[in-house]
User: What shape does this take?
Amino acid sequence: MNDTTSHALLRQQIDDDIAVFTLNRPAKRNAISLPVVGALRSAFDNLPASVRVVILNGEGDHFSAGLDLSELNASTPAESMMHSHQWYAAFRQIQFGRVPVISVLHGAVVGGGLELAAATHVRVVEESGYFGLPEGQRGIFVGGGGSVRISKLIGFSRVAEMMLTGRVYGAAEGVQLGLAHYLTPAGEGMRKARELARRIAGNAPLSNFAITNALPLIAEQPMEHGLMTESLMAAITQGDDEAKQRVAAFLDKRAAKVVPS
Assistant: This one.
């Protein structure tokens, strides 16, 4: 199955078990407005059952330059808080949804764009990518979950330094810090993402779900709580029919062993 859906804000293409969602505001450097947030939430809410992995990227020269600041002009504090909660709901669907999400990053991965990327599970950055949190220079504060998600990736001290100084990190530095996992030459990010997506789609769906949903919770729990959660997830995944078949295939020497790639 190959199905492409055109949308003013978010393009969707389904290739069998891999979906590609593309932010589609290149003239605005893919700035994230509430309609974009709504389009993302709807896309992940209505993901076809056949899809096992989503790839998220941006049209044009940039992944996303962040929040559409025009939405802040007439906001009251109460409206601003509700604005953030709409982002939280959409980004939660990405981070804790049914399937793993790979982001392909290039050009600006800034402010809200970095907050969006931080909600994905695997991040591929092209050499043109750069990371920044310019909120301090704008007189505002992160409002899309960045103080939590980005801090968990690189530590709150580094996030504070980025916000206070406006420091911008290049692609290679971003990989070293933990903002991305893979670095590719220009134009190669999607190829790498598809390679990774095929590998992830080949996993047992229940195992993928446990990895993306249980690991972040275990990381927040005291050790004994985390070990109990781990044991429960291990029991659930190991009891799944697909897991039993995969283990049997390995024991029968019908499955590949782990080797360096």
